[in-house]
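re: that complex we talked abt at group meeting.

here r the seqs, copy pasted straight from the sheet so there may be weird spacing, ignore it
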Amino acid sequence: MLTILFDGVAYGMLLFVLACGLSVTLGLMNFINLAHGAFAMAGGYCTVILVNRLGVPFALGVPIAFLVTALLGGLFERTLYVHVYARSHLDQVLFTIGLVFMSVAAVDYTMGSSQRFVQIPDALQGQFDVLGVGMGKYRLLIIVICGLLTVALQLTLAKTRFGSRLRAAVDDQRVARGLGINVGAVFGITFAVGSGLAGLGGALGAEILGLDPTFPLRYMIYFLIVVTVGGTSGLVGPFLASILLGIGDVAGKYYVPTLGAFVIYAIMIVVLIWRPQGLFARATAR
Amino acid sequence: MVTMAAVTPVLAGDVAAYLKRRARWSPLEIAFWIFAFASIWLFPGKYLILKDTAILALFALSLDLILGYAGIISLGQAAFFGIAGYFAGLIAKYGIINEPIVALICAGAVAAALGFVTSFLVLRGSDLTRLMVTLGVSLMLGEIANRYANITGGADGLQGVDVAPILGRWRFDLYGHNGYVYCLIVLFVCFVIARRIVYSPFGLSLRSVKGNALRAAAIGVPVKWRLVAIYTVSAGFAGIAGALLTQTTAFCSLDVFSLERSADLLLVLIIGGTGYLYGGLIGAVIYKFLQDWISNLTPQYWQFWIGLVLVVIVLVGRERMAAWTVTVRAAVGLIGARAWSRVWPRSPARGGAAPDGR
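got the structure back, here u go
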């Protein structure tokens, strides 16, 4: 029982790191980016290449994956995404689905369609036994890393100058622009960091989530659930939503395995009917 | 007050005349359908792909009704396609209703019922919420179909579907000839119904809702019920398309619910253009042609090129593409009108108004 809770929290933390970038970009630019999972996949495959083929240590491979995907995200943002912000939601959906299809086929072409695993160092395998509760070492590591990241993100958002600019831009873009905040630059950086975090999540989560070319399609709905259920104002909502989702999914798969992901979708629909703005959203006029 | 009473009947007459004029079949449309039916004899070896095109066209038509005429973005049209597909497969397999046309109508009704129920979930919240809910519904149905593998066949698909001959006379043959004719006739009937709907006052009110829901409500259009109604009709059409697929292939698998199906559908409609009924039909032809061509070149990676087409379409701008199709349509319409007036040189009723292709 506690092991399930533990696994669920680890899973949820992972989902949060994967999806938090999406929630910020969605809240900031009102931009529906269905291709977010493609960046996570990029991070995962980057780690696979670095660690398995080039023999880079795992502890170094994961940060490099973060940097590579952040660069990739920044590049895509400046060259492609910029043109689509002002378009209708339909255009955004079409554009990002197109990107997903392309990434799926491109990865299939270059890396093959079979599932890949990152070689995790021996020191991280096995599990601790605390008060009769089995805790996987790797999962514990994920919880620690993701927990630290969450705190760091929250502090950045709440305490730094960049954070206050970002929050201002999310709350009211026009006024923020009027105050001299370069919303485009803020958004570019946020997008790059968000993609980088997705890449990091993909790198760490390759072991738990499974990494194959259909990754962006399989997890797209999960990221979107985190964002829609958590709301797009602030990080606390998505964080709670992803923890809930993680625990719910692990518990659901453990107790009623035959139903599969049915439980999650049903809960999502109920929440969205109950509170279309998200479970933890402030009441805004958006 | 006197002038009001005098004006109103004239106005009503004007509106009726306007609607009637708009709803007239243009020569271009007639030519389109003649060509569509001529394809039965023109391309004898291509029945299978033609049949798939007709089904896809009907499916795209169903999406056009809600996207092009009511402005509802949906990633879950596959839910209706899938549920009716399975329904048609199951009733044929267990011999409950063997006659294909009756089964088709029943399957469409089932999908429409699902559409009616889910419309209340869809018609609230923002675009994102709508996307999520429509997608969630189709994924949920996919999970259910996977779960009850003893009924649906699960990942192996529904096998052993035995469909009786159409009207007891025409059996679904191996070359797909009868299947194609059947699909084409169903497509035509559904198209005529859809055309009737969008050219009616009801269709006009839908356009006003799409233009500005708040103002439409202010002039007395019951926005919510109009959307519920069109969503239900659209679900029924999508269901008929799904049932056609099951009946003509005698098979139904879990991928009828997949996200790719809904996403491809959006692409089809975007290629053809939204909001003028023929968009889905033309888009389906182009899409199937593209798919056939690309998958001959690179069988495994054709998805990449489909994705590229989507990205390029958005970057170039749908408006620019739409402007292009409008120009082509206007030009073809003009030529068509000239040809028409040459065939019928003295037709006073048709005098001034040139058909605008819509």
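couple things i noticed - Residues 92 and 98 of chain B are 5 Å apart (CA to CA). Residues 346-358 of chain B have pLDDT under 50 and may be disordered.
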